[in-house]
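Supplementary Methods, section 5.1.

A reviewer requested that the exact input to the structure prediction be made available. We therefore reproduce it here, unchanged from the version used in the analyses.
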Amino acid sequence: MSLVSIIIPVYNGEEYVHRAIECALAQTYPHKEVIVIDDASTDRTQEVVKKYPVIYHRNERNMERAYSRNKGVELSKGEFIFFLDHDDLWREDYIESVLKHLENSQIVYSFPRSFINSEGNLLRVSRKKLPEDPLELVFSGMVGYPSATAFKRSAFLGYKDEYVMREDWEIFLRSYLEGLSLKILDEDKVFIREHPKRTSKGKKFWIATYKVYEDYKDKVPKEYLPYFLFHVGETAMRFGKLRLGWELCTRAIFKKPSLLANPRRLWSLLKRGFRFWRR
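The structure derived from this sequence is encoded token-by-token as follows.
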């Protein structure tokens, strides 16, 4: 039976980290190790983590999440790598369900549909229809949550610090361009926690998105470029970069008019591009 390594990076996560650890230990797949990487927390994280039978490593100083995930892999021994953010959760059979597909694919992404609040109560369930071509998801920026991502050890290319806030999307782009195989699952076994401390809504998110755009705009395959441009464009609009957002979205629509047949994209363009709700 293959060893599975579960990597839990955490920074000041005393409120939630015990739930993530308990969730990892409760997985029905028996042959596993749990590795917690503490990114120099200043709260009670260390005290909480040391109550559990896990491998614990503390960074000497705060190094950010890409470094912490990579450090966890470095310390791990498993043939398969699973990441679980300290504030997210899995259904108890998540690892078993993913491993069936990791035999034939190098990366498996379990599309998250369930979102929970700080108390763990269900906030919403996404009804988003997934495209038949999984690469549309990749180039549309609709993949990334590390808690929904698993790798064969041999296929893990490492998260890059320079893309932090979008490092979890960039690794999918890089992996595809390196020829690695990807499987998308839609089984609703991952719970993403939404709370005020989550770090995906600030200005750094846009800066990282634009860096991904600059570094990959000439590498994206022609058939997927419209999806890539539209995603970066609507993200630009979200952060108030309306001129750039319209430029990128217009280019995307010119290349592939059928993008607007998707109601979500049309609504996003109207909502973000015209900002009519602020008038």
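The radius of gyration is 19 Å. These observations are discussed further in the main text.
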